[in-house]
Amino acid sequence: MRVVEVVNVRWFNATAWYGLNLSRLLRAFGHETIVLALPGTDTFAAAQRLDLSPLPLNINSPNPRELARVLGRMRRLLEEFRPHLVNCHRGEGLILWGLLKKFHPFALVRTRGDQRPPKGSFPNRLLHGKTIDAVIATNSRTLEQCRRILHTPDARLHLIPGGVDTKRFFPDAAARAETRRNFGFAPGDFVIGLVGRFDPVKGHAQLIEALARIIHRGDAPAARLFFIGLPAAFTKENLMDTARAHGLEAVTVIAPEKADVPACINALDLGVCASQGSEAIARAALEIMACAVPLISTDVGVMPDLLAPESLVPAGDCAALAALIRRTSTEDDFRAHLMLAQKKHLSFLTDEAFLQNTLAVYHAAVERANGKEANEIFRP
To answer: Looking at the domain covering 2-163+350-377, what would its CATH class be?
Structure first.
């Protein structure tokens, strides 16, 4: 199959990761794949690091003259590469691909990995209801928004949360022991970790407050807090200041920026996603699950699709989060129950499953766009 993945995301966020990881998998399994990305951006650089040879296309430009040049490049790409399918991971430029679809026989797919509801304007409803051959939503809430706001037919709606590389993220007893030793965690310590950029939306402050509630009551004397991530809206010093304000400085550890992330995750006894409104795509959650670390979370974004209901608490409810941390850290049977549920979910969330589920959608979209069976379309 010949595919164009349009990953026009400025920052290397979860949406960009989803698109580039999919492109990497498509190429690895022999599908000719061209990645289009915004020149000079974090995502473009990430695509280069992955040896995806991205093509620069400033499809997000508000300048009419620049968009005219972009449209010309898009037409040349379609004429020379003749893709079977174009997948747009953001909405900018989607209408241009929709217009070009009238003159070139490719299937158009829109992958929505945004927590914000789509705009229900007439052009957007027309695009998603008539022109686009398939819509992939990364979580159930987004899928329902597409159904309700954009009137996308059910036959063209698909839920694919993404996947995790289980060759990189897996239970590793040796890495666990070494990492715990290197960071000064004692054998009896119960290490609670949050993996994510240092940003208020990730809920670091809420996790600190929740843990402070149970530590200061004497309910978790051996608890340690481990933050794994990169500075963003605030620095390591800001994060430690928050821990200090809650009396947790002595039990809080922050991993260095170039830390071995799989090893750090393996060092955990409990992973927490305390996000306050993000996680339309949950890369860190999948990585924690793949390392066989029990995970609890707020009920945002894709998390209800990944975890059992009893693993979830309302976003911002520090008392509920504290109670769930206490239960998970003290009740072996409950922790085992959560792990069993995670294991069942994870079987559908590997990179291999991600690719196969996406290819099934791609084949159906190509058949719809061409009006004939896939084996006729892809015949050598």
So the answer is: alpha beta
